[in-house]
Amino acid sequence: MSAATAPAVELEPAERVSGVAGTSVDVLGVAKTIDGVRVLRDVSFSARPGEVTALLGPNGAGKSTVLRGIVGLARLDSGTVRIGGRALAELDRPLVTVGVLLDPDAVETRRSARDHLRILAAANGLPASAVEHALRLVGIAELADRRVAQMSLGTRQRLSLAGAFVGEPQVLILDEPHNGLDASAIRWLRNTLRAYADAGRTVLLSSHLLGEVARLADRIVVVDGGRVVADTTVDDFIAGASADAAAALEDRYLTLVGDR
Fold first, then answer.
1. Cβ–Cβ < 8 Å for 219, 229
2. CA distances in angstroms from 217 to 31, 50, 77, listed in the order given
3. DSSP code of 77?
4. Does the domain spanning 3-90+169-257 belong to CATH 3.40.50.300?
């Protein structure tokens, strides 16, 4: 099954799952220095329930460091990060609250796709049915017993997405989720992320594909030089432009950060 023929995601509205209207991601005054270089400088923004928030910026701007800091994989020098008002480390079953894709190469290559997801599910108290659903959702059910080492880049990316989706979380945090995906899989991902947001859940992603951002995102946060240089809705960012949304967003973005 390809991603184009994978089943559409069906989600309960956020308030039915958690008892609240949704789970926000709040980044407050975050700073980080790596090897003597100030990578992040007082970065603050929020990703809200019911919206897709795109984190944009040139290579080296600090986007991945922000995302890694949110999920506790990078120790921040200062500032706080809260997911639904709590630190990720405080969550008993993190995959039910936050689904994460940061590095598809972090998967143990000697395991099968099914075994990889089973380990994630077991650690978060999820049933085996959640694994099978995630495999079908991303369109790799027929490859579930293949070792990761034998998979293409696109298939590994889908497996990493399955790991993010397996808990049907309230929040998705995805670093360049389109990498390695073909056109049909990109369209499936766009529709799936839109469904998550429309169900009152929170989607925060980074991407260099500005056309996809224009089609999918509700809000953009632009980071350059370790600082937030724009935090607004997509509509406001391209307001008054005569070009189509994708071209207008690209023009405004490159004007803001410089066409390097």
1. no
2. 25, 11, 29
3. S
4. yes
| Domain layout of the chain by residue ranges | 3-90+169-257
Per-residue model confidence as pLDDT tens digits over 78-134: 999 999 988 878 887 888 999 999 887 778 889 999 999 999 999 999 999 999 999
Q: How far apart are CA 237 and CA 242, in angstroms?
A: 13
Model pLDDT for residues 21-56, shown as the tens digit of each residue: 468 999 999 999 999 999 999 999 999 999 999 999
Pairing of strands 37-47, 25-34: antiparallel
Q: Identify which of 226, 225, 216, 224 has the alpha carbon closest to the alpha carbon of residue 249.
A: 216
Rounded to the nearest 5 degrees, what angle is found at the Cα of 191, between the Cα atoms of 188 and 197? 140
DSSP H or E stretch at residue 99:
strand 98-101
